[in-house]
Write a structure and sequence with these properties.
This protein is α/β, with parallel strands linked by helices. It folds into 2 domains: 40-122, Alpha-Beta Plaits (2-Layer Sandwich); 129-413, 3-Layer(aba) Sandwich (Rossmann fold). The chain contains 9 helices and 21 strands. It has a 7-stranded parallel β-sheet with strand order 9-10-8-12-14-16-17, with helices on both faces. Strand 18 and strand 19 (361-364) form a beta hairpin. The chain is globular, with a radius of gyration of 21 Å.
Amino acid sequence: MKKLCLFVALLLLISACEKETTNTPEVLENGPTTDFVGGNVLVPGQVIIKYDAGLTEAEKQVLRDFYQVEDYKTCSCADPSLELWIFEVDSNGNLPGGGTLEGVTESTKDDAGVEGSEFNPIIKHDGIELSAPFGPAHITTGLDIMSTTNSGVTIAVLDTGIDYNYFRFEEPFLYNSEASGDSCTDNGMNDYIGWDFVEQDNNPFDDHGHATQVISLIYETLDAQDVDFQVLPVKVFDQNGIGTYFDILCGFRYAANNEDVAIINLSFGWYETQYELLKRFIEETLDKKVIVASAGNDENNNDLVRHYPSSYEDANILSIASWNTDLIEVGLSRFSNWGEGSVDLAAPGENIPFYIDANEYILLYGTSYANAYASAIAAGMHVPGMSPSQLISSVIASGIPDDNLNNILYHSYIYY
């Protein structure tokens, strides 16, 4: 069994933004992003349980009854061994019988049938938010841009979903779960084009805006290069850009379990706490997936204050900083995190236009968007049968060295 990690830090940070025009949908200014390094923001009364694989429902119920679990949430379409226990607690966080959640996590780690137990922190990103979607949240609209086959490279994007109505999504490109033959029917719904782990349904519609921007950069980059690709949207953040560690774990397992997925895009992060279950799940993808993770937007040295998931030390992770896109005076963006030992490459992450109608746009800033370009660049280099280490080596080899980037590992930027 893994050692229990107590969560003492919660953080965030994804993208700062600047408004170029006033349009519909309007951009809501978030202002400077804020760090909560060392904070302890947990969902009250919740514990994440990782059962042993193969534990029966009856055996799970025995454990729930023993610990007086009030309710629970499963990882639909992802991992039947992962579960969120929900307890009734008083204003001090104590259980009705006088016990504590700390006592539950300490006790369950020694129980037969339980592999791991952790608290459930809130993870928030401050990516640019649109005041309204581009259209209604009808799953049928998503089916209109679903690929007929999954013949190309597949990129999973764990984020706020996708707005199917975005007018620049002109060609079908969403992953077709039924064509792959592994669609699930959890909660009485067919898995068509992805999954919403916030609402636990088959409609991963983006009512925030951040993921649609990230996916649009991937889409436009690969479409311009005539790359055969699909995107699998995995919704783990709600309309306010707030998610939970549990939903992120479920979303990651959902993406990792899909054999067609070659690249997993993680444009979010937090500081200091190396969550145990996510670390374990990432390790299990070592020879299967390339994970592209944004380095963060706090002018932070990630060698000193670790930023996760980009600072996990697994060989299949690419940690991406933001390059200022200036070909004359190359450098990291002023907001970008760095780390000579922990951040790999830089990609374009500022002054990125995102069109909100045919003639008007806003400018995007943040390592989220650099991360999207890095995912697209990796996807463009992918060939069937290529291992994660081979793909990462190809991406690194494509980097353009510059002495102004000596504060990241490969002293290079990549360009689409």
